[in-house]
């Protein structure tokens, strides 16, 4: 348990939490703080759960955390009773529950972050089976499942691409090698252009060469089209043969049958198909739907432990026992009137089962018949392909068997030769592997020697030059083949060239000397370039090593400087604290009473005494209030009764005045009427 808490504290002190806990402070956290800490860790895994738990009810917090832990497939230890205790502990913030959860989450945070991200898109919504009867809802559900599968495939491809990524150094090296090859090929093309420009009618010859190349490409495409058309023709012939065979069979069936038999067969087929459509297939579909519904319901529920399975098994045993009891009661209360109905029910169930069995047998026989017909068609098509459309006679079949025997002997002979070649191939492959290993060891030794001598990369450069020379030789061979194709045209032009050779002989001689000089200069340039490349590579490696060393020293210097500033600040704080302690000690040890009163100890002692005196006075006041509380409440009640009495007298007085005024007004009205 101590190692577990130590691991949790270390992880919480790192990024991105940075809680600055120690073992004591973490162990002293209250339940609400532990729940908030668990919510923060879950929010780091899934941003939707970055919630302040003070703003939601405890039941909502527990439900939210349990849902996410179920998605992350956290399995709490123990049985079913322990699961209820786990839920209760999660609601109350128990350390015995939250500490293992934190340890499990922090131990595999990256994996759980990926799982939480995928759960947002891959947790399937449950649609009841009765809603899936609607075509629109079923289409949307199917589209939703297809999109989910597409997301799975895309995520897998993304992960594979992340794993199998090429390094940038290898890509740069390949690009530089390709650029060098491009430059060399461009130079060769320029040299060849210069050589060709000296020949008369070189433009026309190049145009003819282009036309020849295009015609060759066209010939290849036509040959490919011809091959495709042959394969299509062969497939069409096979389809025609199968159609002819089917036509003959149908004609034979029609010729041998009567209308009554055909009608009877059609009626039987209609009855069978109607039985399948109305009774068999709907019942099978209903059973499949119910099984799928229960399976989806089981999948949607959280993972069940062995304790859950045992509880369900016990419930199942109880239900079976109740069913057996009900059956026994029914057998006891069995009446003769029900026997007839039970007999009819048994006969009906037997007939229905026999009907289903016969329907299944008929369907299996039809499937077997169709498979046998397909096999027969395949065998007949193979026979047509091998020996034509006619049936073999006895002599022809005997000749065919003799031919097969001779082919079998030839095949065995060739198989022996193949086995010998395979054995020799295995020996050669092993030899090649040994030579490759020896070559790799020699290459490593050579690289070590080159690094020791300061010429690393020389062997690689030499291999590149050899590869370039090999490419050059291949291109020269291709050009030689092209020139062979053009030699017939060149022969016709040789007669015209021979006439001018005599006049061009001194120029050609001078040109040969210049070519020799040019070749020497090219070789010297290549050697210098190789030396330059090796020198540049050595300098780059040295400079990169120096840059890394300087970078490391700068980082070390910055780290030491920050340590220096931190230590200096800590030193100043300690000096200030020491100064305050010295002043406090000096004031406390001083013989003067004024200096003693200035000490923090005396000040805090005085404040404590004042607070104690104040508390004593307040307690005395509280005691007086408690003692006089009953009499004061009684007096307040009497005063309230007196106030109600006076208000009642005031209301009575006001009513009396109003009645007197109304009577006076009535008397005055009566007098006025008498006067009138």
TrEMBL record:
Its main location: cytoplasm. Residues 222-235 have a biased composition (Low complexity). It holds the Pfam family IFT81_CH. It is found in: Cytoplasm, Cytoskeleton, Cilium basal body. One of its GO terms (biological process) is cell differentiation. Component of the intraflagellar transport (IFT) complex B: together with IFT74, forms a tubulin-binding module that specifically mediates transport of tubulin within the cilium. Binds tubulin via its CH (calponin-homology)-like region. Required for ciliogenesis. Required for proper regulation of SHH signaling. Plays an important role during spermatogenesis by modulating the assembly and elongation of the sperm flagella. This is Intraflagellar transport protein 81 homolog. The lineage of its organism: Eukaryota, Metazoa, Chordata, Craniata, Vertebrata.
């Amino acid at each position: 348990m101590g190692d577990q808490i130590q691991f949790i504290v270390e992880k919480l002190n790192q990024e991105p939490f940075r809680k600055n806990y120690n073992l004591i402070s973490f162990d002293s956290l209250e339940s609400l703080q532990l729940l908030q800490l668990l919510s923060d860790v879950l929010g780091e895994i899934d941003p939707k759960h970055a919630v302040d738990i003070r703003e939601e009810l405890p039941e909502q917090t527990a439900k939210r955390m349990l849902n996410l832990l179920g998605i992350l497939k956290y399995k709490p230890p123990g049985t079913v009773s322990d699961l209820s205790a786990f839920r209760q502990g999660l609601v109350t913030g128990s350390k015995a529950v939250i500490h293992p959860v934190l340890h499990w989450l922090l131990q595999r945070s990256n994996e759980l972050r990926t799982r939480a991200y995928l759960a947002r898109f891959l947790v399937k919504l449950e649609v009841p089976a009765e809603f899936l009867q609607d075509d629109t809802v079923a289409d949307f559900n199917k589209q939703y499942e297809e999109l989910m599968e597409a997301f799975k495939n895309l995520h897998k491809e993304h992960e594979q691409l992340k794993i199998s990524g090429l390094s940038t150094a290898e890509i740069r090296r390949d690009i530089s090698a390709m650029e060098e090859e491009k430059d060399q090929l461009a130079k060769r093309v320029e040299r060849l252009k210069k050589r060709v420009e000296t020949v008369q009618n070189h433009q026309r010859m190049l145009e003819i060469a282009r036309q020849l190349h295009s015609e060759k490409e066209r010939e290849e495409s036509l040959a490919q089209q011809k091959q495709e058309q042959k394969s299509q023709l062969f497939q069409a012939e096979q389809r025609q043969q199968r159609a002819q065979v089917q036509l003959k069979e149908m004609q034979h069936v029609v010729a041998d049958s009567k209308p009554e038999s055909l009608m009877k067969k059609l009626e039987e087929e209609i009855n069978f198909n109607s039985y399948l459509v109305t009774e068999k297939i709907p019942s099978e579909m209903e059973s499949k739907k119910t099984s799928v519904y229960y399976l989806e319901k089981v999948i949607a529920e959280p993972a069940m432990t062995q304790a859950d399975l045992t509880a369900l098994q016990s419930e199942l045993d109880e239900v079976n026992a109740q069913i057996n009891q009900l059956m026994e009661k029914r057998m006891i209360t069995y009446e003769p009137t029900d026997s007839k109905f039970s007999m009819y029910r048994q006969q009906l169930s037997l007939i229905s089962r026999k009907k289903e069995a016969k329907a299944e047998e008929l369907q299996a026989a039809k499937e077997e018949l169709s498979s046998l017909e397909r096999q027969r068609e395949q065998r007949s098509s193979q026979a047509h392909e091998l020996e034509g459309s006619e049936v073999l006679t006895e002599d022809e079949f005997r000749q065919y068997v003799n031919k097969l025997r001779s082919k079998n002997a030839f095949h065995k002979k060739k198989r022996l030769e193949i086995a010998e070649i395979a054995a020799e191939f295995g020996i050669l492959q092993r030899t090649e592997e040994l030579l490759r290993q020896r070559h790799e060891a020699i290459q490593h030794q050579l690289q070590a020697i080159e690094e020791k001598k300061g010429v690393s990369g020389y062997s690689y450069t030499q291999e590149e030059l050899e590869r370039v020379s090999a490419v050059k030789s291949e291109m020269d061979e291709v050009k030689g083949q092209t020139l062979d194709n053009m030699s017939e045209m060149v022969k016709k032009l040789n007669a015209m060239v021979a006439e001018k050779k005599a006049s061009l002989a001194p120029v050609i001689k001078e040109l040969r000397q210049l070519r020799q000089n040019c070749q020497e200069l090219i070789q010297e340039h290549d050697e210098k370039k190789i030396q330059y490349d090796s020198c540049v590579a050595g300098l780059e490696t040295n400079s990169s090593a120096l840059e890394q060393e300087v970078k490391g020293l700068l980082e070390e210097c910055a780290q030491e400087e920050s340590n220096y500033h931190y230590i200096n600040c800590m030193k100043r704080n300690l000096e200030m604290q020491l100064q305050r302690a010295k002043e406090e000690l000096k004031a406390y040890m001083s013989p003067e009473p004024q200096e003693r009163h200035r000490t923090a100890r005396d000040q805090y002692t005085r404040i404590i005494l004042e607070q104690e005196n104040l508390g004593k006075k307040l307690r005395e006041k509280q005691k007086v209030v408690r003692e006089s509380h009953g009499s004061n409440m009684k007096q307040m009640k009497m005063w309230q009764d007196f106030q109600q009495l006076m208000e009642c007298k005031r209301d009575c007085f006001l009513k009396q005045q109003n009645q007197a005024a109304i009577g006076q007004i009535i008397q005055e009205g009566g007098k006025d009427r008498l006067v009138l």
